[in-house]
Design brief:
Shape: globular
Strand content: 5-15%
Order of helices and strands: HHEHEHEEHHEEHEEHHEEHHH
CATH topology: Spore Coat Polysaccharide Biosynthesis Protein SpsA, Chain A
Helix content: 40-55%
Number of helices: 12
Number of domains: 1
Radius of gyration: 27 Å
Distance between the termini: 90 Å
CATH class: Alpha Beta
Structural class: alpha/beta
Bound molecules: 2-acetamido-2-deoxy-beta-D-glucopyranose
Strand order of the largest sheet: 2-1-3-8-5-9-7-6
CATH architecture: Alpha-Beta Complex
Length: about 375
């Protein structure tokens, strides 16, 4: 029996079989591998926009009362040491808002109303300036010194994440480091809760900058536990999950669509409570799509005393703590950028001259 006959049993001639195998190898080498490879490299290239001065967002805003020049100094200084460009949105004095301009149903203290107004101004700016995304921060916060790397890792997770309902569009693949399938992305909440029926919707990923268990607030440990992240994973993993009950607005990003939905439900149609509460109610109602990052990436910097709040009765009964910024603390961060900044800018000018002088003398003697 010759070979040709043997292959003939399977309806193939030897040369044909070889050609098919060779063809498959060539197709794999020329088409499949490079496409997969280039999809991966373009994902990485897009994620690397997190290294630009606005972390890959259209703009970074921070909200600050005009009179809190101390906090504005601090935010500009901190941003500069992290290579970030931040744009001031003026905080609003609620007493100055005309009753005619107060949204329907809003029955809020002036300071709480003013807080809502400043956030609404930021949403408006996004529409007015045709931004696709913006990150909105408050003026009393801290972040990790590896903020760019943290956002690059987040971008790699978000570009094609498993919470998405539709595949990313060509535009998103080319230009949107965090995708555009969400309205609001909570990156600086002070607590959150998961939708009881959707606990399977969570993307868990490694991040070397995650704070240890000891540095993580118990509300976040509880939240992570409710989504199955416990034990040794605490202190190693971050979670991307649907926002359902977030509180606080120390840092969140919005898309253009998000700015529209917020202005619709939290201005045009009325306002049911403080801005963060109404955001959470709107998320629960399912009228807006949000994601949360846990542990969060922005955290309050607390110095103690009166300076810590411009909202809660302005804490005027409390003293002004001297040495506040030097003794301040923030939670949920592994490497506080405010602490790192002191190191980064520290110097010993005369000590340096002294060392140089000693070296010159040693050289001269040698
Ligand atoms: C950073 O990248 C984003 C996304 O490409 C872009 O919209 C933004 O303008 C960039 N920021 C700066 C300061 O170049
Ligand atoms: C203030 C206001 O009207 N908010 C609305 C936001 O959307 C939900 C769901 O449609 C309504 O129930 C709220 O009343």
């Amino acid at each position: 029996m010759n070979l040709a006959l043997q292959y003939g049993k399977y309806g193939l001639k030897k040369p044909t079989l070889l050609a098919v195998v060779a063809g498959l190898i060539i197709v794999l080498a020329l088409v499949v591998l490079p496409t997969r490879f280039s999809a991966k490299t373009s994902k990485i290239a897009l994620a690397s926009t997190a290294w630009n001065q606005t972390l890959g967002f259209g703009k970074i805003f921070y909200i600050s009362m005009p009179y809190r020049t101390d906090r504005q100094d601090a935010m500009n200084l901190l941003a500069s040491t992290s290579d970030l460009k931040i744009t001031l949105i003026n905080g609003v004095d609620g007493d100055g808002i005309s009753p005619k301009a107060v949204p329907d149903k809003a029955d809020l203290r002036p300071s709480v109303l003013g807080c809502w107004r400043a956030h609404a101004d930021a949403w408006r700016y996004v529409l007015d300036n045709n931004l696709e995304t913006a990150l909105i921060l408050e003026d009393d916060i801290d972040w990790d010194e590896n903020i760019h790397q943290i956002f690059q890792d987040l971008s790699l997770q978000m570009q094609d994440n498993k919470l998405r309902l539709v595949k990313p569009t060509a535009h998103e693949r080319a230009h949107a480091p965090y995708g555009l399938d969400w309205d609001i992305l909570f990156t600086g909440q002070c607590l959150d809760s998961a939708h009881p029926d959707y606990r399977d919707l969570v993307q868990v990923y490694d991040d070397p900058s995650v704070p240890s268990r000891e540095s993580t607030q118990s509300s976040f440990l509880d939240y992570m536990g409710s989504l199955g992240v416990t034990g040794d994973d605490v202190g190693k993993k971050r979670l991307l999950s649907p926002a359902y009950g977030p509180a606080c607005t120390m840092g969140y990003a919005i898309t253009r669509k998000g700015a529209q939905r917020l202005l619709l439900n939290l201005s045009y149609l009325g306002l049911r409570g403080p801005v963060d509460n109404d955001m959470a109610w709107t998320l629960r109602d399912g009228k807006i799509r949000g994601y949360s990052i846990t542990p969060p990436l922005f955290s309050a910097w607390r110095v103690g005393g009166q300076k810590d709040s411009d909202i809660d009765g302005q804490n005027l009964d409390q003293p002004i703590v001297q040495n506040g910024n030097k003794g301040g603390v923030s939670k949920n961060l592994k490497n506080s950028a405010r602490v790192a900044m002191l190191q980064q800018l520290a110097m010993d000018n005369w000590g340096d001259y002294e060392k140089a002088r000693i070296e010159v003398n040693i050289d001269a003697e040698g």
